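User: Type VII secretion-associated serine protease mycosin, Nonomuraea rosea:
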Amino acid sequence: MLRRAAAALAAGTLLFVGAPAHADDVRGGQQPVIRTLELPQAWRASKGAGVTVAVLDSGVDPHHRDLVGSVRLGKDFTEGANPPGAAPRRLHGTYMASLIAGHGHGSEGRLGIIGVAPEADVLSVRVILEDEEPGFREFNSAERFENVVARGIRYAVDEGADVINMSISKELATREERAAIRYAISKGVVLVAAAGNDGEGKIDGDFAPYSYPAAFPGVVSVGATDRRLRRATFSNWNSSVTVAAPGVDIMGAGPGDEYWVGRGTSQATALVSGVAALIKAKYPHMSPPIVARAMTASATDRPPGGYDTATGFGVVNAAKALAEAARLATHTETAEGAQAQDPAKPMRARTAPIKIIVRDEERVTVYAAIAAAAAAGALASLAVIFVLVRRVRRAHSSQDA
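Assistant: Predicted structure for Type VII secretion-associated serine protease mycosin:
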């Protein structure tokens, strides 16, 4: 039985689920996503085994029955913001981790949340606080927390992450964050971030604002779609959007064996990170631009002309992305698109030059660039979710019309 929770996150309105009365209360609620992404077909080729997805978020509950055994707690870059003894809530981070790598529970894992890559491992890197945590205001005002996202990215790379999920964002970019993105891509790490939930409230002309880290070159920026696979009304649209994924009424796990239903580009981002994990598990040396190419070239519900600013190249499909990755692996080129590359050997990617654009509204500085991707054309570089106050603040919840 569903009841409305008192708390709401940037991902959108969350509904709390008590102990499920029937096994299909949770898994049944996931069926629209499972069908849209064609996960049963994808799992015949890959379930994400051997891949580590770093979840840069508010922390992950390693004891949730749908995640137990799959989570490694990494560094907490927010340490010192909360008063001594204040326990992290870890709601949003647990929610995202379950969509990526939840393995369910019970007989053959048939109960609870099943993630896109159920055999992947999660590295929890805490870089934000929940709005309700006592240190939230201190965290967003103290200078010592200025570059926690950049430090979190570098830490995740050095700890062996293959994919980094960032359901977080800021209004302004920093030199340190841009350098951390370059560092991750140079090490073959796929970066995925959300396009943002300001599609209704912060419109500047004919697009919603850019945000970071999604708008950096080389990051896969994810928009959200509604039940009809059209742009969800809250989802940002601009030329940084790369792909889209379902982002309305998405079932996920919460701390303490709870379950939540929510909406937002946050959830869509986690689903795309799961697809990236499936590809990296099957083709561990595939470079980030080629992984992005596999997802964009195989996307379904493609807009007229092949691309638009609402859903990018279309809705990600796990099964088709793996099939495209298999094709690309047989004759992959480097990110510059010039030199043939042995798919058994790792490749290094280069990011495109950065163009700086200053937007009047909220004085948002935008770095909009398109990452060159192998035999494919341009990938639209990115925008974001979970907008945090000032440097790392929460995004406003948005309802889908």
